[in-house]
Write a structure and sequence with these properties.
Strand order of the largest sheet: 1-2-5
CATH architecture of one domain: 2-Layer Sandwich
CATH superfamily of one domain: Elongation factor Ts, dimerisation domain
Largest sheet: 3 strands, antiparallel
Helix content: 40-55%
Strand content: 15-25%
Shape: flat
Number of strands: 10
Radius of gyration: 23 Å
Order of helices and strands: HHHEEHHEEHEEEHHHEEHEH
């Protein structure tokens, strides 16, 4: 049996808003597996927040660049948030995004090898690292290509903390930008419910079935309740089905259709999402220095 640490219990409590003992029991039942522990709590009807919220830890900026029919979203990380307001760092991020949009590299390694004004992007990052004194990293990028009949919409939140690009068939750039603002704010996972992988549907159905059964609902109505809850789940994670943030009386798909368009694709980057950050304990740090 895996040893359950206090840090694991704390993380599970933050993700589900349950009590300490419930969190610990779930981790024990799941043999320390965080995702399984969340499912255990959901099935018992204990978890108040079923959605896993990645701990945003790394600092830096996300940026968008468009070159003709190509758009790119990039994320460049730094160690502290102070660097995000540094003019040289902002210029570097812009240079990286522009170069990637123009050259369409296959991956991060290829992007780092791109030549810009006689220096590779990697050399530019290394050079600014020496000046700023912090480790700088091109973490990721995503390219989107469009046809002449399609339009991009882009939106940067808080100077680059979140970047969103949308692709629409028809409509106009203003509509696409409104959808990009929605994507930045609401964080959908898929364009439509038809894009949700079967494995995700199967997993959610299983969890919802156990949760419903454990609520003591009659066996004969469990499938109908699960169907309703699954439909709600799909409407929450699918961009097309979400209530449009600027007009909750219509879905995003309906809003776009009213402008003569159709949703095609989107990309959303939030700086640091999915990266665990080391939490410094100031008291322990001071005590360790005293002992030394």
């Amino acid at each position: 049996m895996a040893k359950i640490t206090a840090a694991q219990v704390k993380e599970l409590r933050e993700k589900t808003s349950v009590g300490m003992m419930d969190a610990k029991k779930a981790l024990v039942a799941a043999d320390g597996d965080m995702e399984k522990a969340i499912d255990v709590l959901r099935e018992k009807g204990v978890a108040k927040a079923a959605k896993k919220s990645d701990r945003v830890a790394a600092e830096g900026l996300a940026q968008i660049a468009v070159n003709g029919n190509v758009a790119v979203v990039v994320e460049v990380n730094s160690e502290t948030d102070f660097v995000s307001s540094n003019d040289k760092f902002q210029a570097l991020v812009n240079t990286i995004a522009t170069a990637i949009a123009a050259n369409k590299p296959a991956d991060v390694d290829a992007a780092l090898a791109l030549d810009v004004d006689g220096e590779t992007i990697q050399e530019k990052i290394t050079g600014l690292t020496a000046i700023i004194g912090e480790k700088l990293t091109l973490r990721r990028f995503k390219l989107i290509e469009k046809t002449d009949s399609q339009v991009f919409g882009s939106y940067l939140h808080n100077g680059g903390a979140i970047a969103a690009v949308t692709l629409l068939e028809g409509a106009d750039e203003a509509t696409a930008r409104d959808v990009a603002m929605h994507v930045a704010a609401i964080n959908p996972r898929y364009v439509s419910r038809h894009d949700v992988p079967q494995s995700v549907l199967d997993h959610e159905t299983q969890v919802l079935t156990e949760e419903t059964k454990n609520e003591g609902k009659p066996e004969n109505i469990v499938p109908k309740i699960v169907e309703g809850r699954l439909n709600k789940f799909l409407s929450e994670i699918s961009l097309a089905d979400q209530e449009f943030v600027k007009d909750p009386d219509q879905t995003v798909a309906q809003f776009v259709a009213s402008k003569g368009g159709r949703l095609v694709d989107f990309v959303r980057y939030e700086v640091g999402e999915g990266i665990e950050k080391q939490e410094d304990n100031f008291v322990e740090e001071v005590m360790s220095q005293i002992k030394d």
